[in-house]
Design a protein that fits this description.
4-stranded mixed sheet; about 35% strand
């Protein structure tokens, strides 16, 4: 985990050094794991004026993978997946 964090700092620094007057644009792969075991994956491109904003937005997310092209983040939801809900499952909790 510490290695991934260090890599993110290096990527961030290289983006800011190469383009000091521009916002950082990050390609994100967002994984959501639901209570029923289903996983959804969403690809996003987000732009941040400061990396502190990125860290604030995803402070509770786990960094799974990171490279020059993509950052993969994961979170878990304490609910069933949208597919199961769509299929008619109802939970009174």
């Amino acid at each position: 985990m510490r290695t991934l964090f260090t890599l993110l700092i290096c990527i961030t620094a290289s983006v800011l050094i190469d383009h000091p007057m521009h916002a950082a644009t990050l390609n994100l792969s967002i994984e959501t794991i639901y209570q029923d075991g289903e996983k959804s994956i969403e690809q996003r491109t987000e732009t941040y004026e400061a990396m502190e904003d990125f860290f604030a937005d995803y402070k509770d997310w786990q960094i799974i993978d990171m490279n020059q092209e993509m950052i993969t983040l994961r979170t878990t939801e304490d609910t069933v997946s949208p597919l199961v809900k769509w299929s008619g499952y109802f939970n009174n909790n």
